[in-house]
Design a protein that fits this description.
- The protein is an alpha/beta fold.
- It has two domains: about 120 residues, no CATH class; about 200 residues, no CATH class.
- The protein is built from 14 helices and nine strands.
- It has a five-stranded parallel sheet with strand order 3-2-4-7-8, sandwiched between helices. A two-stranded parallel sheet has the order 1-9. A two-stranded antiparallel sheet has the order 5-6.
- Strand 7, helix 11 and strand 8 form a beta-alpha-beta unit.
- It is elongated and about 75 Å long.
- The two termini are about 25 Å apart.
- It comes from Mesorhizobium japonicum R7A.
- This is PRTase-CE domain-containing protein.
- InterPro entries: PRTase-CE.
Protein backbone atom coordinates (compact mmCIF):
# COMPACT_ATOMS: atom_id res chain seq x y z
CA UNK A 1 0.00 0.00 0.00
CA UNK A 2 1.34 3.45 -0.89
CA UNK A 3 2.27 5.63 2.06
CA UNK A 4 -0.16 8.45 1.25
CA UNK A 5 -3.02 5.96 0.89
CA UNK A 6 -2.10 4.34 4.21
CA UNK A 7 -2.03 7.74 5.90
CA UNK A 8 -5.44 8.64 4.49
CA UNK A 9 -6.86 5.33 5.68
CA UNK A 10 -5.40 5.88 9.13
CA UNK A 11 -6.86 9.39 9.37
CA UNK A 12 -10.26 8.06 8.33
CA UNK A 13 -10.18 5.22 10.85
CA UNK A 14 -9.16 7.59 13.66
CA UNK A 15 -11.62 10.29 12.54
CA UNK A 16 -8.92 12.95 12.81
CA UNK A 17 -9.49 16.58 11.96
CA UNK A 18 -7.06 18.24 9.55
CA UNK A 19 -5.16 19.69 12.50
CA UNK A 20 -4.93 16.32 14.26
CA UNK A 21 -3.88 14.62 11.06
CA UNK A 22 -1.06 17.11 10.51
CA UNK A 23 0.22 16.76 14.08
CA UNK A 24 0.06 12.97 14.20
CA UNK A 25 1.47 12.57 10.71
CA UNK A 26 4.72 14.26 11.73
CA UNK A 27 5.10 11.96 14.73
CA UNK A 28 4.23 8.78 12.85
CA UNK A 29 6.46 9.48 9.88
CA UNK A 30 9.38 10.27 12.18
CA UNK A 31 9.10 7.07 14.16
CA UNK A 32 8.28 4.96 11.12
CA UNK A 33 11.44 6.05 9.34
CA UNK A 34 13.56 6.05 12.51
CA UNK A 35 12.58 2.58 13.74
CA UNK A 36 9.28 0.93 13.00
CA UNK A 37 9.61 0.44 9.24
CA UNK A 38 12.64 -1.78 9.79
CA UNK A 39 10.56 -4.51 11.44
CA UNK A 40 11.69 -7.63 9.63
CA UNK A 41 8.49 -9.68 9.81
CA UNK A 42 6.21 -7.30 7.92
CA UNK A 43 4.92 -8.96 4.77
CA UNK A 44 6.58 -7.79 1.52
CA UNK A 45 5.70 -4.19 0.72
CA UNK A 46 4.03 -3.49 4.06
CA UNK A 47 5.31 -0.74 6.33
CA UNK A 48 4.41 0.50 9.79
CA UNK A 49 1.73 3.09 8.97
CA UNK A 50 -0.20 0.60 6.85
CA UNK A 51 0.09 -2.02 9.58
CA UNK A 52 -1.07 0.52 12.17
CA UNK A 53 -4.12 1.51 10.10
CA UNK A 54 -5.18 -2.10 9.58
CA UNK A 55 -4.50 -2.95 13.23
CA UNK A 56 -6.58 -0.04 14.53
CA UNK A 57 -9.33 -0.84 12.04
CA UNK A 58 -10.12 -4.13 13.77
CA UNK A 59 -11.24 -2.35 16.94
CA UNK A 60 -14.87 -1.33 17.36
CA UNK A 61 -15.67 2.35 17.72
CA UNK A 62 -13.59 5.45 18.16
CA UNK A 63 -12.92 4.99 21.87
CA UNK A 64 -11.26 1.58 21.47
CA UNK A 65 -9.19 2.87 18.59
CA UNK A 66 -8.04 5.89 20.58
CA UNK A 67 -7.05 3.65 23.48
CA UNK A 68 -5.06 1.40 21.17
CA UNK A 69 -3.43 4.37 19.44
CA UNK A 70 -2.48 5.98 22.76
CA UNK A 71 -0.81 2.72 23.75
CA UNK A 72 1.34 2.88 20.62
CA UNK A 73 2.14 6.54 21.23
CA UNK A 74 2.99 6.27 24.92
CA UNK A 75 3.91 2.72 25.86
CA UNK A 76 5.30 0.87 22.86
CA UNK A 77 8.96 -0.07 23.28
CA UNK A 78 10.82 -0.89 20.06
CA UNK A 79 14.46 -1.97 20.12
CA UNK A 80 16.00 -1.35 16.73
CA UNK A 81 18.79 -3.28 15.06
CA UNK A 82 21.25 -0.46 15.73
CA UNK A 83 20.28 -0.35 19.40
CA UNK A 84 20.67 -4.11 19.78
CA UNK A 85 24.02 -4.02 18.00
CA UNK A 86 25.15 -1.32 20.42
CA UNK A 87 24.32 -3.62 23.33
CA UNK A 88 26.35 -6.36 21.65
CA UNK A 89 29.28 -3.95 21.38
CA UNK A 90 29.04 -3.17 25.09
CA UNK A 91 29.20 -6.82 26.12
CA UNK A 92 32.96 -7.29 26.09
CA UNK A 93 34.14 -3.98 27.60
CA UNK A 94 31.45 -3.79 30.30
CA UNK A 95 31.09 -7.43 31.36
CA UNK A 96 33.64 -9.91 29.99
CA UNK A 97 36.75 -7.77 30.25
CA UNK A 98 36.10 -6.65 33.87
CA UNK A 99 35.64 -10.29 34.93
CA UNK A 100 38.94 -11.28 33.33
CA UNK A 101 40.70 -8.29 34.89
CA UNK A 102 39.31 -9.03 38.36
CA UNK A 103 40.32 -12.69 38.18
CA UNK A 104 43.80 -11.80 36.94
CA UNK A 105 44.21 -9.23 39.71
CA UNK A 106 43.29 -11.87 42.28
CA UNK A 107 45.80 -14.30 40.77
CA UNK A 108 48.57 -11.69 40.82
CA UNK A 109 47.58 -10.15 44.13
CA UNK A 110 47.37 -6.63 42.68
CA UNK A 111 44.83 -3.82 42.80
CA UNK A 112 42.13 -4.54 40.15
CA UNK A 113 41.98 -0.82 39.36
CA UNK A 114 45.43 -1.00 37.77
CA UNK A 115 43.79 -1.95 34.50
CA UNK A 116 46.54 -1.01 32.05
CA UNK A 117 49.18 -2.91 33.98
CA UNK A 118 46.95 -5.98 34.30
CA UNK A 119 45.93 -6.25 30.64
CA UNK A 120 49.59 -6.17 29.62
CA UNK A 121 50.42 -9.24 31.70
CA UNK A 122 50.86 -12.76 30.38
CA UNK A 123 48.30 -13.92 32.94
CA UNK A 124 45.57 -11.68 31.55
CA UNK A 125 46.34 -12.50 27.94
CA UNK A 126 46.29 -16.19 28.83
CA UNK A 127 42.86 -15.92 30.45
CA UNK A 128 41.58 -13.91 27.51
CA UNK A 129 42.69 -16.60 25.07
CA UNK A 130 41.17 -19.29 27.29
CA UNK A 131 37.78 -17.63 26.78
CA UNK A 132 35.27 -19.21 24.40
CA UNK A 133 32.17 -17.29 23.26
CA UNK A 134 29.14 -19.24 22.05
CA UNK A 135 25.72 -18.19 20.80
CA UNK A 136 22.56 -19.55 22.41
CA UNK A 137 20.38 -18.64 19.41
CA UNK A 138 20.40 -16.67 16.16
CA UNK A 139 19.76 -13.58 18.27
CA UNK A 140 23.20 -13.86 19.87
CA UNK A 141 24.67 -11.90 16.95
CA UNK A 142 28.06 -13.54 17.35
CA UNK A 143 29.09 -12.15 13.97
CA UNK A 144 28.59 -8.61 15.25
CA UNK A 145 30.30 -9.45 18.54
CA UNK A 146 33.32 -10.76 16.64
CA UNK A 147 33.58 -7.66 14.46
CA UNK A 148 33.17 -5.36 17.48
CA UNK A 149 36.17 -6.92 19.25
CA UNK A 150 38.76 -7.69 16.55
CA UNK A 151 41.71 -6.70 18.74
CA UNK A 152 40.54 -8.67 21.75
CA UNK A 153 39.45 -12.07 20.49
CA UNK A 154 40.35 -14.27 17.55
CA UNK A 155 37.77 -15.76 15.20
CA UNK A 156 38.47 -19.21 16.67
CA UNK A 157 37.16 -18.04 20.06
CA UNK A 158 33.69 -17.09 18.83
CA UNK A 159 31.18 -19.62 17.51
CA UNK A 160 27.54 -19.09 16.54
CA UNK A 161 26.11 -22.08 18.45
CA UNK A 162 26.62 -23.99 21.69
CA UNK A 163 26.16 -27.40 20.09
CA UNK A 164 29.74 -27.96 18.94
CA UNK A 165 30.84 -31.13 17.15
CA UNK A 166 33.86 -33.19 18.20
CA UNK A 167 35.99 -32.13 15.20
CA UNK A 168 35.15 -28.47 15.79
CA UNK A 169 35.95 -28.58 19.51
CA UNK A 170 39.20 -30.42 18.80
CA UNK A 171 40.13 -27.71 16.32
CA UNK A 172 39.37 -25.04 18.91
CA UNK A 173 41.72 -26.70 21.39
CA UNK A 174 44.47 -26.98 18.77
CA UNK A 175 44.16 -23.27 17.97
CA UNK A 176 44.17 -22.48 21.68
CA UNK A 177 47.36 -24.47 22.20
CA UNK A 178 49.06 -22.76 19.25
CA UNK A 179 48.19 -19.25 20.46
CA UNK A 180 49.12 -20.00 24.07
CA UNK A 181 52.55 -21.11 22.87
CA UNK A 182 53.09 -17.58 21.54
CA UNK A 183 51.72 -15.92 24.68
CA UNK A 184 53.63 -18.08 27.17
CA UNK A 185 56.80 -18.42 25.11
CA UNK A 186 56.66 -22.18 25.62
CA UNK A 187 54.48 -25.18 24.90
CA UNK A 188 51.46 -25.04 27.26
CA UNK A 189 50.74 -27.92 29.59
CA UNK A 190 47.65 -29.97 28.79
CA UNK A 191 45.65 -28.42 31.62
CA UNK A 192 46.55 -24.94 30.36
CA UNK A 193 45.40 -25.68 26.81
CA UNK A 194 41.78 -25.83 27.91
CA UNK A 195 39.09 -23.16 28.03
CA UNK A 196 38.42 -21.66 31.45
CA UNK A 197 35.69 -19.19 30.50
CA UNK A 198 32.59 -20.18 28.53
CA UNK A 199 30.57 -17.11 27.57
CA UNK A 200 27.03 -17.80 26.37
CA UNK A 201 25.30 -14.97 24.50
CA UNK A 202 21.64 -14.38 23.69
CA UNK A 203 19.54 -11.37 22.80
CA UNK A 204 16.47 -11.45 25.04
CA UNK A 205 14.38 -13.23 27.61
CA UNK A 206 11.14 -12.05 29.15
CA UNK A 207 10.38 -14.91 31.53
CA UNK A 208 13.64 -16.88 31.80
CA UNK A 209 11.84 -20.23 31.59
CA UNK A 210 13.51 -21.25 28.34
CA UNK A 211 16.89 -20.86 30.05
CA UNK A 212 16.27 -22.77 33.26
CA UNK A 213 13.25 -24.32 34.93
CA UNK A 214 12.32 -27.31 37.06
CA UNK A 215 11.66 -30.46 35.03
CA UNK A 216 9.02 -31.80 37.44
CA UNK A 217 11.20 -34.74 38.43
CA UNK A 218 13.54 -33.05 40.86
CA UNK A 219 15.95 -31.87 38.18
CA UNK A 220 16.43 -29.03 35.74
CA UNK A 221 15.79 -28.36 32.08
CA UNK A 222 16.25 -25.41 29.71
CA UNK A 223 19.22 -24.11 27.72
CA UNK A 224 21.50 -23.49 30.70
CA UNK A 225 20.82 -26.83 32.34
CA UNK A 226 21.44 -28.70 29.09
CA UNK A 227 24.72 -26.89 28.45
CA UNK A 228 25.98 -27.45 31.99
CA UNK A 229 25.11 -31.13 31.70
CA UNK A 230 26.92 -31.37 28.37
CA UNK A 231 30.06 -29.72 29.71
CA UNK A 232 30.26 -32.32 32.46
CA UNK A 233 30.35 -35.17 29.94
CA UNK A 234 33.22 -36.52 27.88
CA UNK A 235 33.37 -35.49 24.24
CA UNK A 236 32.54 -32.26 22.44
CA UNK A 237 33.11 -29.19 24.61
CA UNK A 238 33.35 -31.32 27.74
CA UNK A 239 36.88 -32.28 26.69
CA UNK A 240 37.74 -28.74 25.60
CA UNK A 241 37.32 -27.10 29.01
CA UNK A 242 39.41 -27.35 32.16
CA UNK A 243 38.53 -29.89 34.83
CA UNK A 244 38.14 -27.21 37.50
CA UNK A 245 37.96 -23.46 37.93
CA UNK A 246 35.75 -22.96 34.87
CA UNK A 247 33.37 -20.00 34.71
CA UNK A 248 30.24 -20.18 32.61
CA UNK A 249 29.07 -16.62 32.00
CA UNK A 250 25.55 -16.23 30.60
CA UNK A 251 25.04 -12.79 29.07
CA UNK A 252 21.74 -11.46 27.77
CA UNK A 253 21.62 -8.20 25.88
CA UNK A 254 18.09 -7.42 27.10
CA UNK A 255 16.03 -9.00 29.89
CA UNK A 256 12.89 -8.26 31.85
CA UNK A 257 12.86 -8.12 35.64
CA UNK A 258 10.66 -11.22 35.76
CA UNK A 259 13.27 -13.19 33.83
CA UNK A 260 16.16 -11.87 35.88
CA UNK A 261 14.49 -12.86 39.15
CA UNK A 262 13.56 -16.26 37.72
CA UNK A 263 17.09 -17.08 36.57
CA UNK A 264 18.93 -15.63 39.55
CA UNK A 265 16.75 -17.55 42.01
CA UNK A 266 17.45 -20.88 40.29
CA UNK A 267 21.06 -20.70 39.14
CA UNK A 268 22.54 -21.20 42.64
CA UNK A 269 20.68 -24.51 42.83
CA UNK A 270 22.20 -25.77 39.57
CA UNK A 271 25.33 -27.82 40.19
CA UNK A 272 28.33 -27.44 37.88
CA UNK A 273 31.10 -29.75 39.04
CA UNK A 274 33.85 -28.00 37.08
CA UNK A 275 33.27 -24.48 38.32
CA UNK A 276 30.64 -21.76 38.62
CA UNK A 277 27.80 -20.29 36.58
CA UNK A 278 27.26 -16.52 36.45
CA UNK A 279 24.47 -14.47 34.91
CA UNK A 280 24.74 -10.94 33.51
CA UNK A 281 22.44 -8.57 31.62
CA UNK A 282 23.61 -5.67 29.46
CA UNK A 283 20.28 -3.80 29.52
CA UNK A 284 17.54 -4.44 32.08
CA UNK A 285 14.06 -3.40 31.02
CA UNK A 286 13.14 -2.29 34.52
CA UNK A 287 10.13 -2.77 36.76
CA UNK A 288 8.01 -0.10 35.05
CA UNK A 289 8.11 -1.77 31.62
CA UNK A 290 5.36 -4.42 32.07
CA UNK A 291 1.83 -3.10 31.62
CA UNK A 292 0.19 -2.11 34.89
CA UNK A 293 -3.42 -2.86 35.83
CA UNK A 294 -4.03 0.71 36.96
CA UNK A 295 -2.08 2.98 34.62
CA UNK A 296 -2.49 0.76 31.54
CA UNK A 297 -6.09 -0.31 32.10
CA UNK A 298 -7.38 0.92 28.69
CA UNK A 299 -5.10 -1.31 26.60
CA UNK A 300 -5.38 -4.17 29.08
CA UNK A 301 -9.15 -3.95 28.69
CA UNK A 302 -8.71 -4.62 24.98
CA UNK A 303 -6.27 -7.44 25.73
CA UNK A 304 -8.88 -9.06 27.98
CA UNK A 305 -11.61 -8.81 25.32
CA UNK A 306 -12.22 -12.21 23.69
CA UNK A 307 -12.88 -10.50 20.36
CA UNK A 308 -9.20 -9.65 20.21
CA UNK A 309 -7.71 -13.01 21.07
CA UNK A 310 -7.40 -16.18 19.00
CA UNK A 311 -7.46 -19.35 21.09
CA UNK A 312 -5.07 -20.96 18.60
CA UNK A 313 -2.33 -18.81 20.11
CA UNK A 314 -2.42 -21.00 23.20
CA UNK A 315 -0.63 -24.17 22.16
CA UNK A 316 1.26 -26.84 24.07
CA UNK A 317 4.16 -24.44 24.58
CA UNK A 318 1.93 -22.08 26.57
CA UNK A 319 1.84 -24.66 29.36
CA UNK A 320 5.51 -24.00 30.12
CA UNK A 321 4.63 -20.39 30.92
CA UNK A 322 1.71 -21.47 33.09
CA UNK A 323 -0.81 -18.99 31.64
CA UNK A 324 -2.50 -17.95 28.41
CA UNK A 325 -0.45 -15.93 25.94
CA UNK A 326 -3.17 -13.27 25.94
CA UNK A 327 -1.02 -11.16 28.29
CA UNK A 328 2.19 -12.55 26.86
CA UNK A 329 3.97 -15.80 27.57
CA UNK A 330 4.25 -16.39 31.35
CA UNK A 331 2.05 -13.32 31.92
CA UNK A 332 4.97 -10.98 31.19
CA UNK A 333 2.68 -8.18 29.89
CA UNK A 334 5.42 -6.52 27.88
CA UNK A 335 4.86 -3.74 25.30
CA UNK A 336 8.09 -4.76 23.58
CA UNK A 337 9.02 -5.26 19.93
CA UNK A 338 12.45 -6.34 18.71
CA UNK A 339 13.38 -5.36 15.17
CA UNK A 340 13.81 -8.96 14.02
CA UNK A 341 10.67 -10.37 15.71
CA UNK A 342 8.17 -9.57 18.45
CA UNK A 343 8.72 -11.73 21.55
CA UNK A 344 5.70 -13.73 22.65
CA UNK A 345 6.24 -12.30 26.14
CA UNK A 346 4.59 -9.15 24.81
CA UNK A 347 0.82 -8.81 24.82
CA UNK A 348 -0.87 -10.87 22.12
CA UNK A 349 -2.38 -7.84 20.38
CA UNK A 350 1.12 -6.73 19.41
CA UNK A 351 2.31 -9.99 17.87
CA UNK A 352 -0.74 -11.96 16.65
CA UNK A 353 0.47 -14.05 13.73
CA UNK A 354 -0.70 -13.56 10.16
CA UNK A 355 -2.57 -16.89 10.04
CA UNK A 356 -4.69 -16.04 13.10
CA UNK A 357 -8.03 -14.24 13.30
CA UNK A 358 -6.64 -11.16 15.08
CA UNK A 359 -4.29 -8.66 13.47
CA UNK A 360 -0.98 -8.04 15.16
CA UNK A 361 0.63 -4.62 14.88
CA UNK A 362 4.02 -6.30 14.52
CA UNK A 363 3.10 -9.88 13.52
CA UNK A 364 5.35 -12.52 14.97
CA UNK A 365 6.89 -15.46 13.14
CA UNK A 366 6.95 -18.32 15.63
CA UNK A 367 9.63 -20.99 15.93
CA UNK A 368 6.77 -23.41 16.52
CA UNK A 369 4.64 -22.41 13.53
CA UNK A 370 2.05 -25.02 12.62
CA UNK A 371 2.47 -26.83 9.32
CA UNK A 372 -0.40 -26.31 6.91
Amino acid sequence: MRKDLAESLLAKIMEWSDEEKAAERAYLESFASYKYDEYQQFSPGKRFIESLALWLGQFTGGEERREAYNFVRKRLLFISTDEMNHLVELTFPTIIRPILIADTATELGVDPHKVKAIVDTVEYRTRLRQTLVLGLSDGARTDWFRRANPQEMSNEQVFHAYDVSDPKSEGMVQDLRKHLTKILGREPHDHEARFRYIVLLDDFTGSGTSFIREDGQGGWTGKIAKIVSGLMKAGNLGDAIANSGVKIIIILYVAGDQAIEHIESRLPKLTFGKGTVEFEVVHKLGETTPLDDASDSPILGLVADDRYFDDDADDEHSKVGGTSKRYGFANCRLPLVLAHNTPNNSIYLLWAEDDQSVRGLFPRVSRHRKLQ
